[in-house]
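Narrative summary of target 7.
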Amino acid sequence: MVQQNPQTKLLVNLLKSTKDYTTTLTSHLVVSHTALSGLQAYASASSPSTAQAILGVAEALKAADDAIVRYANEVDTWRERLKEVKRAEDEVAIILRDREILVNRLIKASSKKPTRDSVIHPPSPSSSQISLGTTAQTQQQRLTNAQAELQGCEQTLAQKQRELEQIRSIAIRDGLERRCMALVQLGSSLSEKGTSGWMISSATFHCAQVPQMGCPIFHLLRPNLPHRMERMR
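Modeled conformation, tokenized:
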């Protein structure tokens, strides 16, 4: 029996942990959707200006969740690519198992020994000689067939191993690149939507505190935004 190689074991472990990760992301999005619905509902019990601010921030939060959805989809795509690698590894494992069977069959065919009488006593032109000759031919044919089957298996194995390396290389390269790019886009979206929500909230509630200034806070926030956000950390 061909044992599972360490690389395949690690791949199985990676598939499992990645599935757990995508499940966690999905659970987060479900809970976040419920929380946003509660926030939007709460806006109906607030004053018009406060309600408008709450709904504006909720919209920014929803857009942030949409960005997380896109990232989660890329993680799921990465997992599908890993599954392709696993299927290719399984094909190679099956061929390795078949090769083991063929090797044992060849050993058995090549280990057939002639009978003691056929070695010690020279054959006589009789029916027994014909029988021995037929038996020898049969054994040789079995040996030839076993050799041919093993050679064919070796050729198939070499081809599948090359295909596996190609599939693995492409899957890992493209999958990780796409996932990292999605992460960059996620970070950019979170920063953008977080800034948008923060500006809506600040503009609304700061204006309520300083109405005599004609609500200039919205215009002042953008140039001072990096410094103000740094102080909040």
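Residues 127-209 form the longest helix (83 residues).
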